[in-house]
Amino acid sequence: MHRSDYNISLVLIAFGIFIFISSYSIPVLTIIEKTGMVNSQFFPKLCGIFLVLFSIAMILENYLLMAKKEKKVWGEYGERSEKFDYIKLIVVAALGFMYLITYQYLGHLISSFLFVCLFMYFLGIRNLFLLIIAPGGISFLIYAVFRIFLDVPLPEGIITF
Amino acid sequence: MAIALGVFGGIAIGALPGLTATMSVAILTPITFAMNPMTGISMLLGVFCGGIYGGSITAILIRTPGTPAAIATVFDGYPLAQKGMAGQALAMALFASFCGGMISAFILIFSAPILAKIALEFGPPEYFGLTVFGISIIASVSGRRLIKGLIAGVFGLFLSTVGMDPVTGVPRFTFGATAMLSGFSLIPVLIGIFATSEVFYQAVITQHGKGKITLKEDTIRGIFIPLSLIGKNFLNIIRSSLIGTFIGVVPGTGGGIAAFIAYAEAKRSSKYPEKFGTGVIEGVAAAEAANNATTGGALIPMLTLGIPGDPVTAVLIGAFMIQGLLPGPLLFQQQGRIVFALFAGLLIANIMMLGMGFLGLRFFAKIIKVPMSVLSPTILCLCFVGSYAVANNMVDVAVMLALGMVGFFMGRHDFPGAPIVIAFILGPLIEKSLRQSLTLSQGSWNIFVTSPICIIFLILTVLSVGFSLYRSYKKESEERSI
Predict the structure, then answer these.
(1) DSSP-derived 3-state class of residue B329
(2) ipTM of the complex in this document
(3) pTM (2 decimals)?
(4) Rg, chain A, Cα only
């Protein structure tokens, strides 16, 4: 069995148990809910139970496949099991987090410009002209479409018009 | 001219992630204030049709459904684009949308009052049956990854329970945070699961310093679809259009549900169901025909009963009333002239959508030629803005980002993302209809077997799940014997 699938199953079983136990803290308004079992706790409990059951089924399915010495069937995501650099993932996540933190305070124009510039640099663009023009253009174009043309509010931040 | 403007505006806004067809109608309604009623109403219908179709463009090209109705289009549309067949996928989406819209328009014209009466028969037990049938497609879209698909579906169901209980209003899994009372919004969830996760994947797997394009070919092969392909998909499009029209008639459903069901039916009827999800044009045709067919269907209860068929028609009712159209039982008698103009407007809007769509196809398809090192940051920027635009709330953006990470890891471990969104959309409807039904029946489960419509849907559910499992088992047995 793939070790990752086994680990995921264990995590999901733990998560399912957490959901099931947490469901008991959801208030039940018995004045309205005269139906007994099916109340505000019902669906969350159901989710917890099914998560545990399906995770156990996943473990069993993998052991059965191993017993039959069958290759695991991959779907269209199969090729995504190739190894990747965790550092890259951390950098991308950090960039996204930085964008999230600065979006409201610096505003759309500045934070988007910084984000796109840094992301493009990370993805391999080294042309200084492109690193300035493209992020500026993209940031302003999105601003123009959403804020000016469609009148959808975007955070102004430190730049106000 | 007004219809053309409406269709163009609808396509452009519908294509933008975070801006739904509902928003496109709401944003462009003020433009119609200065117009006479027939012109204004026709323009809004153009926005409606264009908005539903527009979502398919970004769904196919960058795996970001512009509208919830285009979620099912992603399943095969994006893989087709990855195979270098973005042009054909876009063309089929356009043609299927046109057919779906026209078929539902004709059904609206000739049978509106009859279908409206059937829609009135839908109460909580019938909705329960319909939504259970809808959620059964999780089994279909999961394919051979059934258990992982079911796990993803349960996760989506759990996400839908966060926030206020739909029946009693008690908080669930909010952990005391006021911002979580309204639960997770649909747009950040679907942007996160589909688009953000894909951007993470492209960025992390991309070779450093080269900005590798992961498409097999970076040239667009074919824009116009051959007649033989249309012929092969003829029955598929008709069936999906009928499904979409019927689903659209039922209030509170919408293009997303119709597209899921039509997609699942197309897969079940196909000779090669295992290829669905890997890039088959039938999947795109089914999803798009169904979601645009809801335009005519949703107008049926709206015009005949004054009840909106989906969120877009809920906005349209207000816009129509501003133009002097009073939807309801007396509409056909008192304002027949405007109603017939509306019918004509709907037909012309679909024809305009076809024309404009074909003119714009080559331009749309060229987006895929942009290097991923420029496209990925742009898409993520759009994801941020789209998620923020929903409610001007940074919590939505944080949810989008978090689910993007979740979606990335799920994809790496072969968990399909579609069941999450399907369960997220249908979960609240199932729960609400179940609990309302049991409240009506004082806790008796017999209410579900005494409703003929509910029984029909439950039987269809059992048959469809059983048939999918049987087919899957048969296929595996054949492969083992080879």
Answers:
(1) coil
(2) 0.86
(3) 0.79
(4) 24
CB atoms within 10 A of CB B37: 18
Q: How far is B105 from chain A (nearest CA, A)?
A: 29
List alpha helices for B270-310, DSSP H: 281-305
Mutual angle of helices B71-82 and B418-440, in 10-degree steps: 170
Positive or negative: CA dihedral B420, B425, B429, B435: positive
Residues 6+ apart with CB under 8 A from A115: A95, A98, A99, A135, B377, B380, B381
| A20 shares contact with chain B (CB less than 8 Å) | no
What contacts A118, CB < 8 A, 6 or more positions away? A95, A98
DSSP-derived 3-state class of residue A107: coil
Cα B303 vs. chain centroid, distance in angstroms? 22
CB-based contact B424:B189 (threshold 8 Å): yes
Cα-trace Rg, chain B = 22
List chain A domain ranges: 3-81, 86-149
Residue contact B27–A151, C-beta within 8 A: yes
pLDDT single digits (tens) B86-97: 888 999 999 999
- Separation in Å, CA A125 to CA A61, A121, A138, B205, B245: 45, 5, 15, 16, 48
* Closest alpha carbon to A48 in A72, A79, A3, A14: A14
Take residue B471 and report the two structure tokens written for it. 């087919």
Residue B147 to residue A57, Cβ atoms within 8 A: yes
Counting every residue written for chain A, the total comes to 161
Inter-chain CB proximity A75 and B394 less than 8 Å: no
Domain boundaries, chain B: 2-481
- In 3-state terms, what secondary structure has residue B163? strand
The dihedrals phi and psi of A40, each to the nearest 5 degrees, come to -65, -20
- Cα B215 from Cα B369, distance rounded (Å): 10
Q: What is the pLDDT of residues A48-71, one digit of tens each?
A: 999 999 999 988 888 877 666 554
